């Protein structure tokens, strides 16, 4: 089946309290892109964080001792480092101007996802408190406004070990199984697959990034044509259990 | 811009020596999908490995001491472990039935990419010797057959630390810059981006996976509408330099 990714244009700069679902539905209507059952709406983390008021004015942050020392070592703003540490449960690695942390959600990423890009000057954005819940709320509101059963993915841009560059991944989702499990299925040669579980939500986030980019102020996309299993479990289920994780 | 992903159907089981570019062009013609300049053709690793004869019959492999010991520990086939070790330059982690290695190409992945799925019984497929060169060869042949300037990505399915499931990533590419660098560009708020470099080839590989799946015998896809920079550098440039890598 053909997969299509439509960027959602004309969505204004997001301010705290704005209704993202309504903006998505309005944008899709303006672009004559009638939402369909089974569509996946991808909303970028930055837009969700802004709508949920997860913005902090840097000048109001007082860095502690640990943050100040680390900031000096990395030549970073100590107030920013303070926020990075507050948003983390564990520092995983430090180096090359980056603090790799484990966030409260269980994500391992640079700077706890705290980010100054695409935010008004002087402010930084923190990750949503519960991105799966953010996705659920958008999904419920789209259902109400457009009478369509969609899935929602909240995406963010993460680096990864061993490879340069970043890819967009899912930090929250609602309405679809994050993994497509092939366990027990046989390939055309009769070989039984055991561990094949594509992280569909991450691949959808990456596909959306191809159509939206970083500079055009496009905070959302519609991904159409993906066969997914409806499910109520979110991205939190993708966080690898401690005892299975070879890289803790 | 809309991004579209078309699975390429009707491509037969690949045998050593087959001309993948020709099969891709024929499949696109049959499905009335005229290739265009700027299209990205994604070909799965397994198809490339088969076409290049990178298949090994397990019964012809004699495991060494190290492989036999490791196989016992992991309850894996010692001949398979022998191949995994031969294809690696370094064992990164061992556990949960998986050997995470660094391959000769510099990729860190499970089992050196040695895989029994979608291969005839009794055989395993090894990664192509030089997937960037594989991509270049397909690209040149598509240019000759269809008179179109396309980019080519060779994709494989990799797990990742900290998160369950796998995503398709690029192990080879030709004709496009693997990273889209935003370094020095300003966001709509005037903030200068420093480290933002989406790994476009990986996101394209993931997008293709959404349209092809694992069980349908679809070894290739066309991804249309991605804005990329033409370049002659391949995926080898994505391998993180030793001194920058916090996770070695």
CATH architectural type of the largest domain in chain A: 2-Layer Sandwich
| Rg of chain A, alpha carbons | 19 Å
Total number of strands of chain A: 10
Spell out the CATH superfamily of the largest domain in chain A.
Answer: CofE-like
Main β sheet profile of chain A: 5 strands, mixed
How would you spell out the order of helices and strands of chain A? EHEHEHHEEEEHEEHE
**What's the total helix number of chain A?**
6
CATH topology type of the largest domain in chain A: 60s Ribosomal Protein L30, Chain: A
Proportion of residues in extended strands of chain A? 15-25%
Number of domains of chain A: 2
How confident is the prediction overall: mean pLDDT of chain A?
95
Uncertain segments of chain A are none
Lateral arrangement of strands in the main beta sheet of chain A: 1-10-2-8-9
Oligomer: homodimer
Main CATH class of the largest domain in chain A: Alpha Beta
Helix fraction of chain A? 25-40%
> Biggest interface between protein chains, with counts per chain?
A-B, 74 and 74 residues
User: Structural class from helices and strands of chain A?
Assistant: alpha+beta
Shape type of chain A: globular
Kindly describe this structure.
The structure is a homodimer of 248-residue chains. In chain A, 51% of the residues are buried. Chain A is α+β, with helices and mostly antiparallel strands and 248 residues long. The first copy, chain A, has a 5-stranded mixed sheet. The first copy, chain A, has helices at 20-30, 45-51, 65-74, 78-86, 131-146, 200-212, and strands spanning 3-7, 40-44, 55-57, 88-95, 98-103, 108-110, 123-125, 151-160, 163-174, 220-224. The longest helix of chain A has 16 residues, at 131-146. The first copy, chain A, folds into 2 domains: 4-54 and 128-241, CofE-like (60s Ribosomal Protein L30, Chain: A, 2-Layer Sandwich), CATH 3.30.1330.100; 56-124, CofE-like domain (CofE-like fold), CATH 3.90.1660.10. The interface between A and B is large, with 74 and 74 residues. Strand 1 (3-7) of chain A pairs antiparallel with strand 1 (3-7) of chain B, so a sheet runs across the interface.
């Amino acid at each position: 089946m053909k997969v299509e990714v439509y960027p959602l244009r004309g969505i204004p700069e997001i301010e705290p309290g704005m209704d993202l679902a309504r903006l998505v539905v309005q944008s899709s209507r303006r672009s004559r892109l009638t939402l369909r059952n089974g569509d996946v709406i991808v909303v970028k983390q930055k837009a969700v964080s802004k709508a949920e008021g997860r913005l902090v004015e840097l000048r109001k942050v007082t860095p502690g001792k640990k943050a100040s020392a680390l900031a000096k070592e990395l030549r970073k703003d100590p107030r920013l480092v303070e926020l990075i540490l507050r948003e983390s449960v564990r520092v995983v690695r430090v180096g090359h101007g980056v603090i790799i942390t484990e966030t409260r959600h269980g994500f391992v990423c640079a700077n706890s996802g705290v980010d100054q890009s695409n935010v008004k000057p002087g402010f930084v954005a923190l990750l949503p408190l519960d991105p799966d819940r953010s996705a659920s709320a958008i999904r419920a509101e789209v259902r109400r406004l457009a009478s369509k059963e969609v899935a929602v993915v909240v995406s963010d841009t993460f680096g990864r070990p061993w490879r340069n560059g970043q890819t967009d991944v899912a930090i929250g989702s609602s309405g679809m199984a994050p993994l497509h499990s092939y366990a027990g299925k046989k390939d055309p040669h009769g070989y039984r697959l055991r561990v094949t579980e594509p992280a569909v939500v991450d691949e959808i986030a990456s596909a959306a990034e191809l159509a939206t980019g970083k500079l055009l102020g496009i905070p959302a996309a519609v991904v159409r044509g993906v066969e997914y299993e409806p499910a109520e479990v979110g991205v939190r289920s993708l966080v690898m259990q401690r005892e299975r994780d070879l890289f803790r």
